[in-house]
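Re: the 132-residue chain
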Amino acid sequence: MYYNPYMNNYQNMQMPQQYTQPVYKPLGLQGKVVDNLDVVKAMDISMDGSMNYYPLADGSAIATKQLQQDGTSKVVIYKPITEQETEQPKYVTESDLKSFSEKELKDMKDDLKILKRKVEDIIDDLKEKKEK
């Protein structure tokens, strides 16, 4: 029988198999529905740093709570933005335009000319500042 000194070393060098236990993470969001925001402050949170969600029962807000690296917990409150109705522009109809007198129309034209000059002056000032 032939002796190979490297064979023994190779057999001794084999690494033992390591078994790792899978980390279980629940599916979905962690948290529960609460009655008010004061309850969120007292709620326990996940120690792994994942976000916990606490929607208010009345639907007025959602609070999140998360463990920070310094050991404190951070609560953030999200409230829905309600769309405020914007005032729609009012347009002048042909009949409205015909109802203006000649003097009113002339005054409006003069006001528009003044406004146009002011806008042109502002644009010129901005150009000058940009060039400096």
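The longest strand covers residues 62-67.
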